[in-house]
Amino acid sequence: MTARTADTAATDAVPIIAARGVCQEYKLARKSLFGQRERLAALQDVDFHAMPGEAVGLVGESGSGKSTLTRVLVGRERPTAGVMEYEGRDVWSLDGAGRRQFRRSVQVVLQNPRSSLDPRMTVGVSLVQPLRALHIDVDPKARVREVLEQVGLGVDVLSKYPHEFSGGQLQRIAIARALMPHPKVVIADEPVSALDVSIQAQVLNLLKDLVAELGLTLVLIAHDLSVVAYTTSRVAVMSAGRIVETGRPADLFRHPTAEATQALVDSVLTVEKGLEGSALL
Ligand SMILES: Nc1ncnc2c1ncn2[C@@H]1O[C@H](COP(=O)(O)OP(=O)(O)OP(=O)(O)O)[C@@H](O)[C@H]1O
């Protein structure tokens, strides 16, 4: 990370999740039959971490590498170079038990809850599924009741299907599902960008509350600096596959040093100006 680094964490504390010098290269399709396959560097020497119980934001324009880094952080893709660590251990060197523990402990919430929840399953079945998939031996009914309370929903949702809910309620259900295996880290990839503006703050407040009340670590990914600034205490800015700046949200707004950060600040101000003009504020 750049000079403006973390305010968090004593230097000897171990991050719960960390990417160290991570590169991710994709081979692109051949342009001609005998042509070379070009490579695209989606991540270049990325250092990113979250301390236990910390809420960290990852922000950047479209194509900057946020989703690629998410796939690396959750262990879905092995980086072409560098190390991906969970509690100080290289995720790709873990044995079977360690790998299961990692899969349980790091859960993801995606942008669109309508595509992350199976439309043919009741909410109850969807919620219990991660316990089965990860072989977690707990009383499913008790756990379901507990997580529904944590996300502010009642047990009446259990017999319903996804199409019976609004986007905001459905995102709460997707968050409940992510909480089922008792994760230590939740990685939320654009969790509010598909929601009405009026609902966005409710979902962000829920994520903030979960960090405060459960001691969860949150990695919040968004293209909108104001979304991550509202929810997290430290923000990393990505551009063209690199982390170009890291700092407290207020400092990034006041004194952006990287061009990409300046562009994100400007776009927030432009949106606000537009809202003022349209008398929505
Ligand atoms: N599987 C893949 N094969 C080839 N190129 C890829 C692949 N996945 C991502 N890329 C490329 O890597 C770069 C980073 O993409 P990525 O989706 O991580 O960015 P992003 O910041 O998440 O963008 P967005 O906000 O639009 O989702 C882009 O140029 C993208 O086209």
Automatic annotation (TrEMBL):
Q: Known Pfam families for this protein?
A: ABC_tran
Q: Please indicate if the UniProt record lists Repeat as a keyword.
A: no
UniProt keyword list: ATP-binding, Nucleotide-binding, Transport
Q: Which InterPro entries match?
A: AAA+_ATPase (IPR003593), ABC_transp_ATP-bind (IPR050319), ABC_transporter-like_ATP-bd (IPR003439), ABC_transporter-like_CS (IPR017871), P-loop_NTPase (IPR027417)
The UniProt similarity line reads: Belongs to the ABC transporter superfamily.
Q: Which organism is it from?
A: Planosporangium thailandense
Protein name, as recorded: ABC transporter ATP-binding protein
> Residue limits of the ABC transporter domain?
28-265
The record's listing under PROSITE patterns reads: ABC_TRANSPORTER_1, ABC_TRANSPORTER_2
* GO MF annotation: an example: ATP binding
* Gene3D superfamilies to which the protein is assigned, alphabetical: P-loop containing nucleotide triphosphate hydrolases (3.40.50.300)
Which superkingdom?
Bacteria
